[in-house]
Amino acid sequence: MMRTRPLKVALLGCGVVGSEVARIMTTHADDLAARIGAPVELAGVAVRRPDKVRGGIPAELITTDATALVKRGDIDVAIEVIGGIEPARTLITTAFEHGASVVSANKALLAQGGQALHAAAERHGQDLYYEAAVAGAIPLIRPLRESLAGDKINRVMGIVNGTTNFILDKMDTSGAGYSEALDEATALGYAEADPTADVEGFDAAAKAAILAGIAFHTRVRLDDVYREGMTEVTSADFVSAARMGCTIKLLAICERAADGESVTARVHPAMIPLSHPLASVREAYNAVFVEAEAAGRLMFYGPGAGGSPTASAVLGDLVAVCRNKLNEATGPGESAYSRLPVSSMGDVVTRYHISLDVADKPGVLAQVATVFAEHGVSIDTVRQTGKDGEASLVVVTHRAPDAALSGTVEALRKLDTVRGVASIMRVEGE
Ligand code: NDP
Ligand code: HSE
């Protein structure tokens, strides 16, 4: 039975994502109504610049007073696609206080203040859904929160930033340097004018915090996520990676420790074997590899950004939240009952690929090997290439705690015979 009174939606933000949400809400109005069981009506659109032309949106719906819009009292769902921390946080809380559920795409806010927002939603009997906050169009939050709710997830490893994947893919396939690849990403509209959040790994770290929290039913704050960007990755690293049958990706990795007693979350560039499913994720695509006890290995793949793909995820949430409203119910809230401690990067067990410039004389290799042994790090392979009395030494280790590996590198830097550490990269996915 179709309810005739429409559910009213406040759209907070009408930029890259919001304008696509408005367009699809309008063009697919009948389908959305049929799927929800009631029509959905765009009741207002809050923006910063009211005079900007916004095709298809009636001028009388546009407002610069987002607070007044969410305080109207007749709004059923607020869609927050403004981004950033404030005013988004206050608007979401105000929406809950005035009887609206919220759909948001704001990973920065959810990673930093998700706990308080979930608590506010619960207090006011409203939903907080945010499928679009991680990996754009790819259904990931709901599969983790609902489809895998009966399983035990041990690892989530993914490419969750399209801009950096585009840059690394260009460097790999065309031999371009970082700056050249970044320029191309900017020209194509992938990278923003200030690409810091993407290339320094902040965007991926926010997504890792959200994924780890959901996967392990525990609170993971943004500060708990170890983060390294990809600006130091060079063309030479790709040459080394290729020699090992690997490529380089910026990975977000959330893991349960082997004893199950703690978790870790980290973002950094890493070499992965070409045979790993994540190695073939090209251009600005995202993909997330989930390892669960009963389900085994699952891979989620698709467009991780862009107005229309992200709007798809927002609208999926809108339909779910509206259905809940009609049923006078709410969907799953925060699940943090596990309360597992989040360990530091030093406890992560991984492998290193270390490239050293060393003096090419007797005993150097033995000296280098001794440093590894002293730190309890086992060497897997060593490759040496001579060049004018010096040599380039590439050492790949077996798995060891990250603290032992970084201690090894620190000690290597102090050896007279080590002229420099050309690159250090973790090796994952084997
Ligand atoms: P945009 O910068 O394109 O749009 C932001 C919108 O918010 C604009 O319409 C802007 O108004 C409006 N706005 C800004 N400040 C205010 C304010 N104080 N009051 C009312 N409106 C305001 O951002 P995106 O659409 O790209 O991103 C939106 C959210 O979606 C972010 O959280 C982002 O992280 C997330 N996201 C984005 C993806 C993408 O590919 N773009 C992918 C996944 C998630 P005006 O138009 O007047 O400037
Ligand atoms: N800047 C992000 C990216 C947008 O490149 O993936 C999606 O969150």
Task: Give a brief rundown of this model.
The chain is of the alpha/beta class and 430 residues long. The chain contains 14 helices and 17 strands.
* Count of separate DSSP helical elements: 14
> What is the structural class?
alpha/beta
List the bound ligands. NADPH dihydro-nicotinamide-adenine-dinucleotide phosphate, L-homoserine
Q: How large is the share of residues in beta strands?
A: 25-35%
Task: Flag low-confidence runs.
Answer: none
Give the assembly state of these chains: single chain
| Helix content, binned percent | 25-40%
**C-alpha Rg (nearest Å):** 24 Å
User: Largest sheet, described in full?
Assistant: 11 strands, mixed
Write the layout of secondary structure elements.
Elements: E1 7-12, H1 16-27, H2 29-36, E2 40-46, E3 62-63, H3 66-70, E4 77-80, H4 88-97, E5 101-104, H5 107-123, E6 128-129, H6 141-147, E7 153-159, H7 162-174, H8 178-187, H9 196-199, H10 202-216, E8 226-227, H11 235-243, E9 246-256, E10 263-273, E11 285-292, E12 296-303, H12 307-326, E13 349-359, H13 364-374, E14 379-387, E15 390-397, E16 400-401, H14 402-413, E17 418-427
Give an account of the 3D structure.
The model has no long low-confidence stretch (mean pLDDT 96). The chain is elongated. It has helices at 16-27, 29-36, 66-70, 88-97, 107-123, 141-147, 162-174, 178-187, 196-199, 202-216, 235-243, 307-326, 364-374, 402-413, and strands at 7-12, 40-46, 62-63, 77-80, 101-104, 128-129, 153-159, 226-227, 246-256, 263-273, 285-292, 296-303, 349-359, 379-387, 390-397, 400-401, 418-427. The termini are far apart. It is of the alpha/beta class. The protein folds into three domains: 7-135 and 307-326, NAD(P)-binding Rossmann-like Domain (Rossmann fold, 3-Layer(aba) Sandwich), CATH 3.40.50.720; 141-303, Dihydrodipicolinate Reductase, domain 2 (2-Layer Sandwich); 348-427, ACT domain (Alpha-Beta Plaits, 2-Layer Sandwich), CATH 3.30.70.260. Strands 7, 8, 9, 10, 11, 12, 13, 14, 15, 16 and 17 form an eleven-stranded mixed sheet that branches. NADPH dihydro-nicotinamide-adenine-dinucleotide phosphate binds at residues 13-18, 46-49, 52, 66, 81-83, 87, 105-107, 132, 136, 305-306, 310. NADP(+) binds at residues 12-19. Keywords: Amino-acid biosynthesis, Metal-binding, Methionine biosynthesis, NAD, NADP, Oxidoreductase, Sodium, Threonine biosynthesis. Catalyzes the conversion of L-aspartate-beta-semialdehyde (L-Asa) to L-homoserine (L-Hse), the third step in the biosynthesis of threonine and methionine from aspartate. Its EC number is 1.1.1.3.
